[in-house]
Amino acid sequence: MHRPTLARSTRRLGVLTATALAVAVATAAPAAAHAEVEAEGARALDQNVELTFSAESESASAGITKLEVILPKGIDPADVTYEEGPKGWKFAATDRGYTVSGPKLAVGQDVEYEVTVRQLPDAKSLVFKTLQSYSDGKVDRWIELDDSGGDGHGHGHPAPRLDLKPAAPGAKLVSPTPTPSPADDPSTAAPSENPGAEKTPAASAKPAADDTDDGLPPAVPVGIGAAVLLLGGLWWWRSRRGGSA
C-alpha cells in the first residue's frame, strides 16, 4: 500500500473512532444514585447490630441537609442509637423513625452515617424508606420497594433494603422496653404469707409487761398481803387474851 493511501486510511479510522466515542458519551445515561443500608452478616433477631446508611447526592447546585428514615415494623425509634455521621449532624427520634440532620454538605457530597439497633425483628428483609432533603428545598424520596418506579434504566428511587439471614438457633425476641423485675424493687416486695406473724412478738410483749407490778412477780404482793392479815389477826388475838386476864 502506498504511503498516501495508508495516511488517508489512518485519518479515516481516527475520525470514525472519535465519532463513535462522541455518540457513546452523548447517549450514555448518567450514573444512577442510590440510598443503601449495610450490616455485614446480619441475622434476624440479632442484637446490638450496627447499620451503615449511605445516600448519594443528586443535586448539582445544593447540598444535603437532612435524612428522614421511616423504620420498618419491629424496630422502635427508642431502639436506635446514633453512632456517627457528618460533622455537626445530630440524631432526633420521630413518631415513625428518626432524622439525621445538620449543616448543609458540599454540593455533590454524599452522606454516610451509622446507628446501632438494639435488636432486629424476625424478618427476611427490612426496608428503611428515606427522605433526603437539600438546602434548596428539594427532596429525594427513596421510598420505592423496587426499581419499577424508575425510568427503566435503574434510575428509580428504591428504598434502602437490608436482607437478613435466618435467626441463629435459640435466638429470642427481647422486650423493646425492659422493665425491672418486682423482685428487684424493694418497694414491691411480696408481703409475708402470715401478715400477723411479724406482729406476734410485739403483741406478746404487752401481756408480759402486764404480768408484773413495778417489776415484781405477782406472788410477792400476794405474800405481803397474807403476812399483813396474819400479823393483824395475831395482834387481835393477843389483845383479847390480855383483856380477859
UniProtKB/TrEMBL annotation:
Indicate what this protein is called per its UniProt record: DUF1775 domain-containing protein
Organism name: Streptomyces heilongjiangensis
Bias (Basic and acidic residues) ranges? 145-164
State a single Pfam family of this protein. DUF1775
Instruction: Provide the taxonomic classification.
Output: Bacteria, Bacillati, Actinomycetota, Actinomycetes, Kitasatosporales
Region annotation (Disordered) ranges: 145-217
Q: Give UniProt keywords alphabetically.
A: Membrane, Signal, Transmembrane, Transmembrane helix
Q: Which residues form the signal peptide?
A: 1-35
Membrane in keyword set:
yes
Task: Please give the start and end residues of each transmembrane region.
Answer: 219-237
Q: Where is the YncI copper-binding domain?
A: 99-164
